[in-house]
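Researcher: Good morning. I'm working through a list of sequences from a screen, and I'd like to move beyond sequence-only analysis. For each chain I'm collecting a predicted structure so we can compare shapes side by side. This is the next one on the list. No need for commentary yet; just the structure.
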Amino acid sequence: MKVSSPIGDLPFEPQRIAIKARRVEISGVMGAWPAHVQIDVKDLPALVRILAKPAGVAVATAALLVGLRRLTRPRP
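Model: Good morning. Structure tokens for this chain:
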């Protein structure tokens, strides 16, 4: 993973993941420094909004492919 910052792009190397006090915590190293990412319950709506668009596109694509297959399948 990579983190972009004003001082440049730094690699983030995750080392462990844990659930603490209703949060997901990812601990690792960013460049030469220890780093932690915490995802709280209150962050879920934003994550859902971010993931909804790609999920919607995937569902629509799958439905389109199934529909095309049914239309092009020879009928007995």
